[in-house]
């Protein structure tokens, strides 16, 4: 399966799937200090997710789209979402839930609904997983708003 990630490749030798950005800043499904790689199941969803945080017209130069190949299975589903999971800023409840799943070295990732479109899914990958070697960046190209 191919998933998509849009991010700035900084520094030039930046690994777009190392999880450092989420580790440093946290996200909807992880707290600061937990590694995570946020991806979307379509390029349109990845663009929508980016647009939630910044106007697409003002995205700085240098952002790239990454097509990432991941196994078709091996994802944990959250059976019962916290009632506040879609709130902004991201609630502690969803972060703690994701932390618990992402800190398991056998969990390759979690499949979660998108705030932009709850019928679409984001795959939050665990770069610390013993299965992460199955995740491969297939190609990347410049992001054009």
What can you see in these coordinates?
It is a single chain. The chain has helices at 20-25, 43-53, 92-102; strands spanning 2-7, 37-40, 64-69, 75-77, 109-113, 121-125, 136-142. The protein is α+β, with helices and mostly antiparallel strands and 145 residues long. It is built from three helices and seven strands; from the N terminus they run βαβαββαβββ. The model has no long low-confidence stretch (mean pLDDT 94). β4, α3 and β5 form a beta-alpha-beta unit. Helices cover 19% and strands 25% of the residues. It has one domain (2-142). The strands form two sheets. The protein has a four-stranded mixed sheet.
Structure summary:
This protein has 145 residues and is α+β, with helices and mostly antiparallel strands. The chain has helices at 20-25, 43-53, 92-102; strands spanning 2-7, 37-40, 64-69, 75-77, 109-113, 121-125, 136-142.
